[in-house]
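Backbone-to-sequence.
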């Protein structure tokens, strides 16, 4: 083929890709996307066409960078012994940040452990995120949860457990309650591995039967610790599973923040207006090991990880903004400075707050009187702490 023919074919393919994404086509074999794997638009479109304006496009990128840097700092806290565990968000920013930006104050989030570094988008303070990683006084959960299991009563984010997929079951109740009240929707998150749990079936089934206001987002980062997606399900895609439950499923490029924003905005509105549930499969990649207790070299190749770092969602979003004339090196440097200062300040506040009082362990368990067996345990612990005081790895503290 001549170079001109090759180019015109590329343009035609690009237009087809654009149309499929704009139409929000369900059940495709290839992920819907607006930007290619390097970040350039797949065809000509304006920000308006994809429901964005310049301020929101820039905001999404800035929040993705902040999310990345919070996450990198969390790894440092583990190495310093200030947090005992970390589950990384790195690589998932292009999924979570734009999605969270489409939500209103009425909406609920049923989270899982992959989200925390991005939850400032939901209005949670950066210092609260760091405090939760370290379990200090500013932690909304007062150090009683594992690091990375953030919940917040003021931001309609419930405190989830560690059991894979367990948040799906809670999302059924949340979505049903919102349906009764007639406002808001619930975005329910889980990984590719979580789709093998019964809770996923329960949510999908009730979502279809009751027409629940829920957008189920399966973050397909292609692994459940060491188990690859191919060992999780023989389905061609995860999105296609929605067909059997009676509603639409959408395979999206989870590292394309533009399509994540566009699709989630539309599907969340659909849910809020009583038109029913949707399933999103966000195809992405976990750039870090599963957690600070994992060695990913044992189950995936360096070449594979390198490929995904080269097509990092942050790079793609930056390239897109540059193509749109919204970003340059000066703005990048100014942003990096701001984020660095913000992180330092938030981290200091989180750390200087010190550890919560040990008595907190017994608070908020029962609404009424503390039952006798907890009082007995409290007494025993008080005795033990006299002999062996708590170790405090933080610089502040009480
Ligand atoms: C019921 C249950 N089984 C096993 C585990 C251990 N575990 C924690 S995370 C995880 C992997 C889940 O993978 P996925 O759902 O794909 O989410 P990802 O961690 O990849 O984001 C496993 C097996 C658990 N927490 N709960
Ligand atoms: Mg996974």
């Amino acid at each position: 083929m001549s170079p001109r023919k090759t180019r015109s074919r590329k343009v035609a393919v690009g237009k087809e890709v654009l149309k499929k994404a704009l139409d929000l086509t369900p059940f495709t074999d290839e992920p819907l996307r607006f930007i290619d794997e390097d970040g350039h638009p797949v065809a000509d479109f304006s920000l308006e066409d994809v429901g964005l304006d310049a301020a929101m496009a820039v905001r999404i990128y800035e929040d993705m960078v902040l999310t990345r840097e919070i996450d990198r700092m969390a790894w440092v806290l583990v190495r310093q012994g200030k947090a005992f565990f970390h589950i990384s968000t790195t690589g998932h920013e292009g999924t979570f940040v734009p999605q969270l930006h489409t939500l209103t104050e009425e909406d609920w989030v049923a989270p899982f452990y992959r989200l925390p570094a991005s939850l400032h988008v939901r209005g949670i303070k950066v210092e609260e995120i760091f405090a939760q990683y370290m379990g200090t006084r500013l932690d909304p959960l007062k150090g009683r949860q594992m690091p990375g299991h953030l919940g917040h009563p003021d931001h309609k984010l419930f405190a989830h457990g560690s059991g894979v997929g367990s948040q799906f079951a809670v999302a059924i109740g949340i979505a049903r309650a919102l349906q009764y009240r007639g406002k808001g929707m619930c975005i329910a998150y889980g990984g590719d591995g979580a789709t093998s749990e019964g809770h996923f079936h329960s949510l999908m089934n009730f979502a279809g039967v009751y027409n629940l206001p829920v957008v189920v987002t399966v973050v397909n980062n292609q692994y459940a610790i060491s188990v690859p997606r191919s060992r999780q399900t023989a389905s061609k895609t995860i999105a296609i599973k929605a067909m059997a439950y009676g509603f639409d499923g959408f395979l999206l490029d989870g590292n394309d923040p533009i399509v994540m924003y566009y699709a989630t905005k539309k599907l969340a509105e659909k849910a809020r207006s009583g038109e029913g549930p949707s399933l999103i499969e966000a195809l992405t990649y976990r750039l870090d090991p599963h957690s600070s207790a994992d060695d990913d070299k044992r189950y995936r190749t360096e070449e594979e990880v390198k490929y995904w770092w080269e097509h990092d969602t942050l790079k793609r979003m930056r390239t897109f903004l540059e193509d749109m004339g919204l970003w340059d090196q000066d703005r990048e440097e100014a942003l990096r400075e701001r984020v660095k200062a913000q992180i330092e300040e938030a981290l200091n506040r989180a750390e200087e707050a010190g550890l919560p009082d040990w008595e907190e362990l017994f608070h908020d368990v029962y609404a009424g009187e503390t039952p006798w067996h907890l009082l007995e345990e409290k007494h025993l612990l008080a005795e033990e702490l006299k002999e062996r005081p708590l170790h405090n790895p933080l610089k502040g503290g009480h």
